[in-house]
Predict the structure.
Amino acid sequence: MTTKELKMVRPDSKGRITLGPLAHGVSSYIVSTDKYNRIILEPRVEISAQEKWLFDNKTALKQVKHGLEDSAAGRVKSRGSFAKYIADDKDSE
């Protein structure tokens, strides 16, 4: 659905509205109203605390984005398996 397509929804007896496919990939919403009493839903996507460091580290994030761009453009070279560097869950406890 594009922003110009309109869809009528009706709240159920408890005031709930189902967003269906519009909520795909969204984990939560910030809800607000404007001066015309329109309800505004701002979609949010949560990340795990284990991954948050990347978004806090601008240098590392830039490097990851650059790597993804290189990969998408085919500018990659196989360096073999890195399996020996993966810590077993039992090792990290």
